[in-house]
Every structure is written in C-alpha cells, then in structure tokens.
Design goal:
Strand 16, helix 11 and strand 17 form a beta-alpha-beta unit. Helices cover 30% and strands 18% of the residues. A 7-stranded mixed beta sheet has the order 15-14-16-17-24-23-22, sandwiched between helices. The longest helix is centred in the last third of the chain and has 28 residues, at 652-679. It contains 25 helices and 39 strands. By secondary structure, the chain is of the alpha/beta class. It has 5 domains: 6-84 and 634-652, no CATH class; 95-220 and 611-623, von Willebrand factor, type A domain (Rossmann fold), CATH 3.40.50.410; 222-314 and 545-603, no CATH class; 321-527, Class I glutamine amidotransferase (GATase) domain (Rossmann fold, 3-Layer(aba) Sandwich), CATH 3.40.50; 696-934, Rossmann fold (3-Layer(aba) Sandwich), CATH 3.40.50.12140.
C-alpha cells in the first residue's frame, strides 16, 4: 500500500494483531464481576417476582472496547510514522555540511535549519561524524568533525549574519578537514546567490572525491535590495535590484522612517518586464526629506532591504550672495556661476531678490540656510553684519571668496578666519612669484586631508594672509610656496572659511577643476554638523565606533561583540563581520555603512558539475509525524473508560454519590470551622499591634540606602538619582539587590532602618536642630554610618584654616556630634579591598580624600593585606560629590559630567560606592576574608 503515507519502525510487531481473535474469545468467556446490592427487606419484596440473572459473558461493547485498546497498543509498539520522509544516503566516512548563513539566508533560516537537522539525524543513524561549517562566521570558528549531538547543538545556536558569505575561505577549511575523512558525503545548503570566487571554492570542496553531493537552494529567488537612496533636487530617488529569472513586472513599496521610527513617506519601486533594476521616487518637501533616517522595503525581512541614511543624504540649504551684477551674455564670468554648478547636485540653493547687502543678508538668513557663500563681498553694512555674525555664532557656516572688493576692504576679524594684507598678490608684480603656483599637499588636520592635491590647478593671483602664530592651524589648503589657499576658523558654534582666490577662473583655474566640487562638498558636510562623526577636535581623521547595526532580518540592533570601529574618510569599506552594516559614530553624528554598493547585482548560484551522485533537496520542515505517542494516549484513554465501565457494572458508581455527598459535607464543615477560627479576633495579637508597624516591616524587608532631605529640590533630586544609579550598579556587580533609595527627615523619621545615610551638606539649608543632631548622634552610636559630602572638593583637610560655606556648615554640624578621630583612608584599610581594589575614592570631582575613623589601635603585622581591627567607621567625609557621579536619568544615562571629563572616573566613583556598601554591610568580615590566603598558607593547605 505505497499510496498510504504511513510507515512503521518495527513492522514485525504488527503480527501481534493476529492475537486479537484469541483475546476476543477470552473476553467472551470471562464474565464481569456480579453487581453487589444492599439487602434491605422492602427492596427484596419489591422485586421478589423478578428472576435473578447473572451475566455469563462480557457485553459486546466492552469486548469491542478492549479489543480496540489491544490493537492500539500493538500499533504503538510498531512505531508508526505518518507521512514518512525518505532517508538520505548519508553513508561514507563522514558528512560535510556547509550552510550559507549570510544576509540572503535570513528569510528562510528556519527551513534551512530543519533541512540540516534531517541530514544530521540521518548521519547519526549510520554513526557518521559531521563536519559543520557556516560561510559567514569568523575564520577561526570550529568546524569539527563533531558527533551528531554536538553538531545539533552548534546548529541550534547558529544564526544568519547581515554580511555576504565567504565561500572560498570556508570551503577551503572544510576541504582541509576532509583530507582525514576520504569518501565523505558533502551537503551544500546555499542561499542561491552567486558570490566572488565560487568556482574555485567548489573545486576545492568537491575535488576530494565526495561520495555524494546534496544540493539545496531556494525554489525561487525573490529578494529585493536597495542600492541607492539619493536626495536629489526634485525628490528622493530610490534604486533597487532583484535577481534575474523572473521576467514578470513587479512593484514593491518602500517606506521612509525618521530617527524615531515613524513612517513619514512612501514610494513605489517598479520593475519592468525582464528588468533587474527598479526605481522609485518620493516627491515630498525638502524639509521632510531631510528627516529621513532610513528607507525600508515592505515585506523584505533581510538586511539588503534596508538603506540607512546619514548626514551625507540630507540636503542643506545654501544661500548665495554676490555684489557683482549678473551678465546674461557672459555667464562664465559671473562670480556665482561655478559655485552654483558645484553645489547644485547636493544642496538647495537660494539667492536674495535684492543685491543690496543690507536687504539681501537678512532675507537669506530668514530662510534658515546651513551655509552662506559670499563671492567677492567687501564691506558689509553694520546692521546686516551684526545679524550675520550672530547667525555664524549660532552654528552657521560662512564661506567667502576673495576678489578686488574683499582685497580693498578692511579686515573683519569676526567674519574672516585670518587677517589679510591690503591688496592682492599677482604673478609678475611686487611681492609676487614669476610662475603660477601649484597646490601643495593638503594639511593632515583639515577637512581635505584625504584628498589628492590637484596637479592641474595653478594660482596666478591671491589675497595674502598676515603671518601669525596660528596661521598653520587655520590653513586648510596651501600653495607650493606655503601661502594659504583656503583658511578656516571656528566662531563659537559656527565656522568661517575663506578661499584666497576668486570663484571664477580669473585668478586661478581651481573653480573649473573637479577638486573645487569636492572641496565645497566637504564644507557643506561640515555645515551639517557631520564633523563630529568624521573628524577629531582638529579635523583629523578618526575611527568611528559602532552605534547601531542592521541585523540579518533588517532590524536595527545594538552593536554586536564582533563589531569593530570603522575608519573614517578612507573611502568605501567592505561589509564584514568586523564592520557589519549599520551606523557608526555617536549621537553627535553618524556615518551610514550599508550592505549593497551602488553597482551591486544579484546573480543566481549555478550548481557545480561533479562526477559524484547528486541529490537535490528542498528547504522544508519535517512533515513526518510520529504516531506512537497519540496511539499510547488513546490506549490509556480506553483503559480509563474500561475501568469506569467495570466500576459501573459492579455497582460502585451507584453508591458513590452518597459517599461523596457525606465527604463534601464534612469538608465544608471543616472549612467553616477553620474560617471562623481565622476570622475571630485575637485579643493578644490586637494588643501587640502598634501604629507604624506596617511601615517598619516594609522598611526592613529590603536593604535601602537613605539620603538626608535638605529642602533644596535640586540637591535632593541629585541625591535620589545618585543613589538610584549606585543601587543599579550594585545589582549588576554584586549579590546585593537594594530597594529604592529613601529620603529621610533626620528630625522625625526613624533612622535605624538604614545601614548608611548619605548627607549632602548644603550651606543654604537650615541648620538642623539640636534634637535632630542628637538623633543622628544616637544613630551613629548604635552602629549606623553617615556619609557627609560637602561637594566642594575639600582637599586640605577638615582642620584647614580657610573653608568653603559647605565645609563651614559641616563643622557646625560636627561640633554637636561625638565624632571620633579621623584620618584619610589608609592604603591598607579594608575599604580599599572590600570588593574592588581601589587606591582612591573619586566622585564627580577627584582630589579630596575620604575621611574615616582613625584606626588608633589597629596594627598590620607581617605585611598583611589589610590592618586588623573591628567594627566600621560611624562617619565618612568627602568633598568629591559622590551622588553627582552616581546620578542617572530615566534612561540610565549619566546626568552630570565628571571633572575632569574622564569616563573611567565615573566607573571608579561607582566602585567606591560598592566598596563603601560592602564595608558597611559586612564589617570586619571583609577584613578577615582578605586574610584567608595567608591563613591557608600558614595551615599548609
């Protein structure tokens, strides 16, 4: 019966079905147990005329039930499988399983894993070892051979990667492993896309005499990838590619998202008949296009369908100003002609309606440009100059070009990067050169550092800069004789740039060169605040840290452990595991590193020609179902029905309701009695209860760090945020899980609930009353500790002659307390080793020591790790502002910067808080614990 999708693991057991007639005969001859009846006289008289009957055989329905149960048990023991799959011939010395796990495999990864599991299961049945390799993993990833169980574990933890596959390197490693396993079967589970070096890779893998080749590729290639997303003048244009083979027309929808993940625009990308490249356009306003952060193709769960956008994809508005009248007959002589041609591809250009600078400059600024270009503009009216200078200082970029007007005007130090000499320098004149000067190498610290100097550009005339001490730092481009060609300088948040030549081809042929376009593009990029992502403090090229990565399924995720910084300004970089696709940089600026280049194309993978037998596989889930479990469950259900039938025929179920009713009544009575006992008032318990007990129990149920409420909302909020940050750090690094920080009023709240109280000393707060200070003194005498923080980096000691207001207030408080002798934390104090090894205890500031009770009678004999002693210090004093360093906002980010700005100082401050908490909660236990190695050594263990 080959048409039936059913097979058996042990078909010989089916012969047991022949025993069913014998079982039927036995069941027919075995009568059920007679019914037991109660013997009341009246009931016998009522049925005295009845003829007593006793069954001599089982009822037919009970016999049928038992026969069916026996048949189910026999079928279950035969291990039936519904829709069985054909076992693959994975014989030979081993199975080499090579799986593509690049970005193209993300969409059907579960089916690939299911197919690989079947191959490993078949290899396990024959006891063959498995060589398992993935083509998008690190070069040093282990490939085996493994046993079947280890191979399945490695397969289950594997995942697709958002990078192209590297078949040549991986296939070569597998071929090397197969040298020790001749005659192995090879299974290639590919993603269906061709990659560079495939022919050589397959030759290396299959050139070892494979016993069998299992070949699996997707049934059809229908992925779509984005190769370009350009912010053009007319709109936002998209370019996508698809694999060849599907000649039918196709349309896909792409959505544009902002940096918050909101969909703000859509476009339809169309593929014509037989076309592998499609295009679409989003016709949205200029301002809305600049909010695009990513473009995603709908329905494509893979990395190639995502295109991230950085500042390079955002067009900026550039204002153009010139005092020269436009000559329609000779446009090449217009000062703005070459500037317009150079900026138009990547900027939105605007010009004023008036040539009067007093009207033109305010008109341009009102249109919110990112950059303003002035072509040979000399003296600027005072009112317009004030408005222009304010615009620059607020972050604008002003680019000026030299000319006769600028050369004749006086120096404007605020709107020029350098001081200029009056007049200009020309070839053949006084203070000039005799031959045109070429452009020298661009300085390494400027925005043009990675550009090659244009060999074809020469300068015959220029405006000279006065030599100053900082002229070298402000030079972005220079001539061969060292004189500046382009200079730039910061003006608060803005930038001022000067080309020392005219924007037309009269003083130099720079405006008609390709370098002119690239130089202006770089300056426009700086105006987009992209300098933080691509340049250091002085414009030097740096590496960009991974910021947000594209996962294999196209979602944005945090950087993976394998991700490494991306070198900036070094041209196109390949997408690898070290540099996966995503955003690199920081919140101040990022650079997009996308998967597909503009010239990328999808080509189908061709199956290699081999002499070994080839078995083509389909990516699919295992549709076979083991019926053993359901059959056993059905047999158990029939067994339960048989048991109930026997009880019913024996009369047990007819008496059960009365017994159950009696049992239920007794249980109900017991529940009522228990409820009455629980709800009855207990006079002794009621008399012991006191007001505030519930609050006290809640306060001591978990360890909480307290802080003194000063009355200043700003100080109290920092204290609470600081202790919250310390509590989270304690949860991450230690076994302690403190509760939410508690603000306490030392005049009224119970202080004994808290092991330590943080007191930010505020000179503007009211002086605590004598009763409140007495309560603090009692708390310290009872074993509690108060950490006083003056937050003024008081590093001269508590007995110094001059003191800050906060320190003076601290002295007034300590004057009424029983303060023990104090000393800075010694190097061998247990505080330095209670959890972390700390030489100092910085906070938001660094420089003040941490004062603790002096160890007057402690000693450190034989160079032990810490000095001997008992108890903990009841008082600690610092001026380093611990809470300011610990404070975090709702997102978990630091609220206040450290002084100096050092990320490690904040880490050391948090570690200081951990050491203080461990010291407070463990006392001299930590002091004894650090001596354990020496004690064990003395005991000879």
């Amino acid at each position: 019966m080959s048409w039936l999708p059913l097979s058996f693991g042990f078909p010989a057991i089916l012969w047991g079905l022949l025993a069913l007639p014998v079982i039927w005969w036995l069941l027919r001859l075995t009568p059920p147990k007679p019914r037991m009846e109660v013997f009341p006289p009246l009931k016998i008289l009522a049925r005295v005329l009845r003829k007593e009957e006793t069954p001599h055989q089982s009822p037919w329905w009970l016999t049928l039930l038992r026969l069916l149960m026996a048949a189910l048990v026999v079928l279950a023991l035969a291990e039936p499988i519904w829709n069985p799959r054909e076992r693959l011939p994975t014989g030979g010395s081993a199975l080499a399983l090579v799986i593509d796990n690049g970005w193209a495999s993300a969409a059907g990864w579960d089916r690939r894993v299911a197919t690989a599991e079947r191959l490993i299961a078949d290899a396990s049945a024959t006891g063959s070892p498995v060589v398992l390799a993935f083509t998008a993993e690190q070069p040093n990833a282990e490939i085996g051979p493994f046993d079947a169980a280890s191979a399945l574990d490695k397969l289950n933890v594997a995942e697709p990667r958002p990078v192209p596959v590297d078949r040549p390197a991986v296939y070569a490693r597998v071929a090397s492993a197969l040298e020790q396993l001749p005659g192995a079967s090879v299974a290639v589970l590919a993603d269906g896309l061709a990659a560079p070096g495939d022919e050589a890779a397959f030759s290396a893998l299959l050139g070892r005499g494979a016993a069998n080749l299992f070949w699996a590729v997707p049934d059809r290639l229908d992925m779509v990838g984005l190769t370009a997303a350009d912010n053009d003048v007319a709109g936002f244009s998209l370019t996508a590619i698809r694999p060849p083979g599907d000649g039918a027309p196709r349309q896909v929808t792409a959505g544009a998202f902002d940096d918050r993940g909101r969909r703000i625009a859509d476009a339809v990308i169309s593929f014509g008949p037989g076309q592998t490249t499609g295009s679409g356009q989003m016709n949205v306003p200029f301002e809305l296009r600049n909010d695009f952060a990513s473009v995603v193709i709908d329905g494509e769960a893979q990395a190639a369908a995502v295109r991230l956008l950085d500042e390079g994809s955002k067009r900026r508005r550039v204002g153009l100003l010139s005092q020269a009248e436009a000559d329609q007959a000779q446009p090449l002589l217009s000062p703005l002609y070459y500037i317009t041609r150079a900026l138009q591809p990547f900027a939105d250009l605007v010009e004023p309606s008036s040539r009067d600078l007093a009207e033109a400059i305010p008109e341009i600024i009102d249109r919110n440009p990112a950059m303003i270009v002035m072509a040979d503009v000399g003296t600027i009216p005072d009112a317009a100059r004030t408005q222009l200078l304010e615009w620059v200082r607020d972050g604008g970029t002003l680019v000026r070009f030299a000319g006769s007007r600028l050369a004749a005007a006086g120096n404007d130090e605020d709107l020029l990067p350098v001081r200029l000499r009056l007049g200009e320098r020309s070839m053949g004149g006084a203070l000039s050169w005799t031959t045109p000067q070429p452009v020298s190498d661009f300085p390494p610290g400027g925005p043009f550092a990675d550009l090659a100097p244009p060999a074809e550009v020469s300068v015959t005339r220029q405006v000279l800069a006065e030599p100053t001490s900082d002229i070298v730092e402000r030079t972005w481009a220079s001539l061969a004789d060292g004189t500046p060609l382009v200079t730039g300088a910061r003006r608060e948040r803005g930038t001022v740039v000067l080309f020392h030549v005219t924007p037309e081809a009269t003083w130099s042929n720079l405006p008609i060169s390709g370098s002119f376009v690239e130089m202006l593009r770089r300056i426009v990029q700086l105006s987009r605040n992209q300098g933080a992502a691509t340049a250091g403090a002085e414009g030097a090229t740096v590496s960009l840290a991974p910021y947000r990565m594209i996962a294999a399924d196209g979602t944005l995720v945090p950087p993976t452990p394998d991700a490494r910084p991306l070198p900036a300004g070094a041209g196109a970089r390949a997408v690898t595991l070290e540099n996966p696709p995503g955003l690199y940089g920081a919140e101040e600026g990022v650079v997009a590193h996308n998967l597909l280049e503009a010239d990328a194309a999808f080509a189908p993978l061709q199956r290699p020609a081999v002499t070994a037998p080839v078995t083509e596989l389909r990516y699919a889930f295992d549709e076979s179902r083991d019926l053993k479990g359901p059959l056993v469950a059905a047999a158990l259900a029939l067994m339960l029905l048989d048991t109930l039938a026997v009880f019913w025929m024996g009369g047990l179920l007819s008496r059960r309701p009365r017994a159950l009713k009696r049992t239920a009544g007794a249980a109900a009575s017991a529940l009522l009695v228990a409820a009455a006992l629980l709800l009855s008032p207990d006079s002794a318990t009621a008399q012991d209860a006191k007001p505030g007990d519930e609050d006290a129990i809640a306060a001591i149920s978990t360890t909480r760090i307290a802080y003194v409420i000063t009355g200043d909302a700003a100080v109290d909020s920092i204290s609470r945020a600081g202790l919250t940050g310390l509590s989270r750090f304690l949860v991450e690094k230690t076994a302690l899980e403190p509760g939410e920080p508690a603000g306490v009023d030392i005049a009224s709240d119970e202080l004994s609930f808290y092991p330590i109280i943080y007191w930010p000393v505020d000179a503007n707060a009211e002086m605590p009353s004598e009763e409140a200070i007495a309560r603090v003194d009692a708390y310290m005498q009872a074993g509690g500790t108060v950490l006083f923080d003056t937050r003024d980096q008081y590093s001269t000691g508590i007995d110094a002659g001059s003191a800050s207001p906060a320190t003076q207030r601290l002295r007034d408080i300590l004057a009424s307390l029983n303060v023990p002798p104090l000393e800075p934390v010694p190097a061998d104090h247990v505080l330095t080793k209670s959890f972390f090894i700390l030489p100092e205890f910085p906070g938001r500031f660094n420089g003040s020591p941490l004062w603790v009770e002096a160890s007057l009678y402690a000693e450190n004999i034989e160079n032990r790790p810490v000095r001997t002693g008992d108890g903990v210090s009841p008082i600690m004093i610092t001026a380093n502002d611990f809470a300011g360093a610990w404070a975090i906002d709702a997102s978990g980010n630091p609220m206040l910067p450290t002084v100096p700005s050092d990320p490690m100082q904040r880490i050391y401050a948090l570690r200081s808080g951990v050491n203080i908490m461990m010291y407070m909660l463990t006392g001299n236990y930590k002091s004894d614990q650090v001596h354990v190695p020496i004690l064990l050594e003395r005991l000879g263990q």
